[in-house]
What does this fold into?
Amino acid sequence: MTEQAIYMDPALARGTTLSLGRQLVANGCVTESQLDRALRKQNNDHPAAGNNEHLVGRTLVDLGYISQSALLDCLFSQFSREREAYRADAGETPIIRLEQVVKILDGRRVLDAIDIAIPAKRVTAIIGMSGGGKSVILKHMVGLMRPTEGEVRVGEHLLGALSPRQLAKVRGRFSFLFQGGALFDSLNVYDNVAFPLREKTDWSESVIHDRVMRCLEEVNLFGMERKFPDELSGGMMKRAALARALVTDPEILLLDEPTAGLDPIIENAIHYLICDTYMRTRYTMVVISHAVPEIFRWCHHVIALHKGKVLFSGPSTEIGQSRNPVIRQFISGDIDGPIQVI
It folds into this structure.
């Protein structure tokens, strides 16, 4: 998709608290009157949402004010400008920190005294060779693993010092999209997405129904709620898993290889879906990915790991200029270099 020329003021480029609809107006993608009409229709269709502009992009498409392709172009154009602006704001206060973390598993030093800072309300990609400790890092972030040495902080909380109840409360800030989707084969799409709400809340079924159907609409699976996982394509399974991750309205979303095993077209569609989700919600996102160098277009911050060490941590717009031979080989995919695979 092509990037259109749009107006951009500095505040918008930094990714402010402007709602999605206001961003679309500010970028010249739709008019103020079109947005107002879309909001009125959305309020009629989703009265519980009030003035929340969560689904306004879909409503604008339904009304014919913008095509789905043009909507994604607008969102990606905005996201690209925010990526460029992030270069100057990369010193923001992090929401997650790993400080001198060492993890030894089966006698192997999987993480070797690493320091990692995850910026709040940004998309961070963690890249590196298979077996390099990327998934282990995610498990440390939510307290599923504890470091052999070092500390993990989420906000003001030191995870190693928390009681089980306190740790459970911090984990409630997270949601996880597993590499294979991890859908329950015996449950249909609706019940898979509803599962965390039934487990963690005392909400009525009518409230759960409204939330589930909204999330399915957000990931373009509306009408597929009665299908079972074995009836879904790989891309649809990823979207169903994403809907389940979004249904709890998390503050932090962890995505472990969201495009693994997908063909290039579906991979691109999932990247656009992640971008769309971020632009609507402004969640903090941490994405493990092997889709290099494509993933650099879809994140603000990149962390590159190799043999348990951090080789690069900084804006995605800068990693391409790295002179580290390991990073350059990983980006290029060349078989010749310091990484020996054959």
The two ends are 37 Å apart (CA to CA). The longest helix spans residues 68-86. The mean pLDDT is 88.
